[in-house]
């Protein structure tokens, strides 16, 4: 099959705090993830190749001089998960979440929010709007361990899509086998 | 049990930082992220904290010189500072941050000024103690085995 099954997961970490960036980077690397850490939501979007060209009222100064169509940057850099601080100047983590989930290219990337403030309405809003997890700061190793299932799900979905593409019309499970399995339940 | 007397002294120093409330559980989390590949992680983070937070302290000082106080701005700055302090496990400093923020919320300028003075004292005390701790750690050399590291 030749799939890079053991390729490292790549996590994009977003936090305006230098200390917290160092911390999250170390936590993620300890878990064997490849990490890119940026200090703002707009830099995160820039890294993904999603700049503000489609958004009106985007107040962040975008250094990108070329206005690129979103589709041209279909995962130039593969990111398997985004973990972002909530409270950041300019674009909040919530704003970033909305941008990611509103993007056809990137909406399937799991997003995790971190915050030092335990505000239930904030937490609920993030989870309702697509965040997979909400971590209270300071983030710990036990929190980072919760990321793996979200990453594995993304990878298995990706592999499934690749398998379907390669096999074309061929069915993975023949109807006969499926029927047999469900009809022959035996008490062991 | 550490056989090296310096290591024993280091362990005692470390324990007292917790017992006296200077550090909390988060510091232990940092220690757990330290390993052979990243042997100075804790000291690196603490050094970064003192460097980075010096800037915030300066901003707070400047903001506290402008009357009337902009409590929103002060609270915003303190939120940042509290976050960093919390990330390194600076327990007393974090408590002073919380107090300051409460004064901001109630618009108590005098309270803010007092709390800030106290905060700077705690901040400086912790810095001194951690510097001494890391200096001793360097002199004491690496732990004999990993299991004794946190004794």
Automatic annotation (TrEMBL), chain A:
Protein name: Two-component response regulator ARR8
Organism listed in the record: Theobroma cacao
Domain Response regulatory: 10-152
Ranges for region Disordered: 50-71
Keyword terms, alphabetized: Nucleus, Phosphoprotein, Transcription, Transcription regulation, Two-component regulatory system
Modified residues (4-aspartylphosphate): 85
Entry superkingdom: Eukaryota
PROSITE patterns, A to Z: RESPONSE_REGULATORY
GO biological process, one term: phosphorelay signal transduction system
PANTHER family: TWO-COMPONENT RESPONSE REGULATOR (PTHR43874), TWO-COMPONENT RESPONSE REGULATOR ORR4 (PTHR43874:SF106)
InterPro entries: ARR-like, CheY-like_superfamily, Sig_transdc_resp-reg_receiver
Any Pfam family: Response_reg
From TrEMBL, chain B:
Transmembrane portions of the chain: none
InterPro entries per UniProt: AHP1-5/YPD1 (IPR045871), HPT_dom_sf (IPR036641), Sig_transdc_His_kin_Hpt_dom (IPR008207)
Subcellular location: Cytoplasm, Cytosol; Nucleus
GO biological process: cytokinin-activated signaling pathway; phosphorelay signal transduction system
Modified residues (Phosphohistidine): 79
Alphabetical UniProt keywords: Cytokinin signaling pathway, Phosphoprotein, Two-component regulatory system
Major localization listed first in the record, in broad terms: cytoplasm
Top-level taxon of the source organism: Eukaryota
Cellular component aspect of the GO annotation: cytoplasm; cytosol; nucleus
GO function terms (MF aspect): histidine phosphotransfer kinase activity; protein histidine kinase binding
Residues annotated as domain HPt: 38-133
Domain comment quoted from the record: Histidine-containing phosphotransfer domain (HPt) contains an active histidine that mediates the phosphotransfer.
Function of the molecule: Functions as a two-component phosphorelay mediators between cytokinin sensor histidine kinases and response regulators (B-type ARRs). Plays an important role in propagating cytokinin signal transduction.
Protein name, entry field: Histidine-containing phosphotransfer protein
Source organism per UniProt: Theobroma cacao (Cacao)
